[in-house]
Amino acid sequence: MYDHLDELEAQSIYIFREAYRKFENLAMLYSIGKDSTTMIHLARKAFFGK
Question: What is the 3-state secondary structure (H, E, C) of the chain?
Answer without folding.
Answer: CCCHHHHHHHHHHHHHHHHHHHCCCCCCCCCCCHHHHHHHHHHHHHHHCC
